[in-house]
What we know:
Two copies of one chain form a homodimer. Chain A is α/β, with parallel strands linked by helices and 335 residues long. Chain A is 40% helix and 16% strand. In chain A, helix 1 packs across helix 2 (17-24), helix 1 (6-13) crosses helix 3 and helix 5 packs across helix 12 (293-308). The structure holds a DNA duplex (30 and 30 nucleotides).
Amino acid sequence: MGRVRQADIARVAGVSQATVSVVLGGNRTGVRLSERTRLRVLEAAERLGYVPDPVSSRLAAANNNLLGVYTFTPAFPDIADVYYPILVGVEAEAAALGKDLIMFTASSAAPDRIRRTRLADGCLFLGRHVPVDAIADLLAAGFPIVHIGRRTELGGRIPHVGADYVSASAEVITRLARAGHRRVRYLREPDDAPSSGDRERGVRSAAADAGLSVAVVRTDGSDLDAAAITRWLDDGVTALVVEETDTGAVFQAIWQGLRAAEVSVPDDVSLAVLGRPPAGVEGPVVSGFEVPRRALGRAAVRLLASLVAPGTGEPSPHRLLTCPPVAGETIAPVT
Amino acid sequence: MGRVRQADIARVAGVSQATVSVVLGGNRTGVRLSERTRLRVLEAAERLGYVPDPVSSRLAAANNNLLGVYTFTPAFPDIADVYYPILVGVEAEAAALGKDLIMFTASSAAPDRIRRTRLADGCLFLGRHVPVDAIADLLAAGFPIVHIGRRTELGGRIPHVGADYVSASAEVITRLARAGHRRVRYLREPDDAPSSGDRERGVRSAAADAGLSVAVVRTDGSDLDAAAITRWLDDGVTALVVEETDTGAVFQAIWQGLRAAEVSVPDDVSLAVLGRPPAGVEGPVVSGFEVPRRALGRAAVRLLASLVAPGTGEPSPHRLLTCPPVAGETIAPVT
DNA sequence: TCAAGGGAGTAATACGTATTAGTACGGTCG
DNA sequence: CGACCGTACTAATACGTATTACTCCCTTGA
């Protein structure tokens, strides 16, 4: 009825609990054991239906086959577009490695929940902004962590797997330049996060190279009405570049603004997203690039797993994945 | 550098580790303590930056604010439609209750992974079919579990939260009967699961009440071509009823078959789904009902939480939630 | 002056596994 | 015949917290 412990097996097999532990642990410490005893123990374990208690194992200093996932940004449903594909990748790779996942729900009420991550062998972090102090503590304690998305905080000591937004964004600008665009409006998130900063750097450097003028606008979308758009066009702007955001609000605002202003894309103005438009938007395929979220999730799990179980070759703690361009239909040559 | 333990606090505050544990645990066992000592301990804990070790707590006590989620059906991405909303509900309610989630990845390789669920205080189960033996073990051991979706196995002893498919399906048939339909083709999953069986029962009983003839067809969708559909119509069938499935394959097949046969809905034939069509299907709003998945997730978590921490009123271990009807535009009166 | 009683805190132990230092036994060799 | 060695296993302990039974001391009342 009650759980079967190593002690029970020991009694049945006529050995000590320690021996059972050694046998079941595969005897990695090289204890001398006769084959007969080994088999007796294994057989008893089998017969009794032994299952190791992961908590005890963990306490006794081994690891757990458990990887944590900590999401800072709370609202799960609203940002399904952005986070779900990552989680799918994480889940798939974890399953492939035979690890379970523990999802820490970031209730704003208890910021120190982050310490609970220690239940796992290591933890993935995920979100636009990172609680630097807590992360620093974990890092200092030697707890394996990997951030999904590039991180520059703490002097770049946070291991991470990110997307190469710089190159991908630059490539979008280059495409516009090739199509003859010279005046571009660039709409980005109001707050600073590496994913936004990287995009802006890519945009600026490509713009400089191509001799293209880019006006950067920080917005949450609320001020993007038809009037604003008309004003820009009157100003000589021929293309709009929109950052992909968690909620898709900025893109949605632009999209509706364009429709309200009766501006046709790409005939009257070209449009590109630094990423993909939110799901459910009807209309032409918008030019931009794909963020390889599934792959990000997978790569992050692999990196974390290697940090948890070091030995076979230390990988670089930083990786950037390439974002494949999406040609789309919303960039037209300037006439 | 190393972690701060209760023992460290004890040393600083000049008390014993036991006292620290009592103070930090809120002294629920009613040990006599002076206010001064209490404050000294709390202050020391604060100053040293103490954080409890969840592994140890779990080993010593037996409850960790951890709920497990075990999904039998492996393919996460393909069935996002069906499972994701449930998980969203689970996540939201767990966060509200301050519980974390362990997601057990059902790698088909190791069926005994299910035992790992014991890491959590209790576990949610999710999937069309259930590994009865393993569940029975957990149940027998007194481990709190809740299945999402109605379960009849083990003499109904599996606590669950499900949707009332019987009533909802009956209501759909009643709607068809009121519209004058008399001959209906009903397409359901080939395998038996409670969610399918319940729908069929609802369909059959409503059909009997309304004097309506229903031919039940078990299919995975592969045989639903234009020819089959044409044959049915020639037979005098005026309405099709399709079960909602995990992958949406059956509905997709019907949808394409109708188009291929150039049959117009609802002019030539009425169509209803026992649930909702898969996401991404263009066209009119299909008549049917909504499965309250978010609510299912939330209710399941609440039930599990109450099983984990019994005391304040034992709720019924079985709950069925109502599925709100969706009128839609695909049921027309028979002419 | 002694018993009774209560206040304050602690020693001891449990939880289940992993590791390490050690024991016991038999054989071999010089 | 004792020193030495290899084999096969176990005793003891650590991990960090929660609980329970217990001790010690001080006050009060007869």
